[in-house]
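Posting this for the archive.
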Amino acid sequence: MKIMHYDELFTDTDVNTGEDIFFSDTSLEQPYSGNVVDYYKGMLSWEFEALDGFRTGIERKYYDTGELMEENETEHNTINGLAKEFYKNGNLKSISIVIRNIFIDSIFYDEEGNTVNIKHMNDSDMSYFLVKDKVTFYREKYKIDT
């Protein structure tokens, strides 16, 4: 799979998400598929997979000192699947089930790995109606330990 630096690609705005759509040409006619990397002060800061111009696949963000900060499953420029955050020491900070950027279930940990909070979406949440038909499927598919 090809790898391009973020600055080598051309972008347009996804009207549905407000996120970038990536192209390999200035006329914005050839959507980019492949890996994208970005660096800050010489350190890898962001990498993701793109398919037909959209972030689709695994996305990783890094602290400016190089440690993994986030790892997200993405689809069509949204977090869709598991989202994980990490402390600089490598321990899990949170893990969430997400449907199109809507967080369904989340577990939060302290730096030693102890559970400090658990959140579950329910039908009283404002966004619930947008994903209610998929909640059971995603919970069964990902089964985070809540």
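The two ends are 36 Å apart (CA to CA). The chain has a mean pLDDT of 95.
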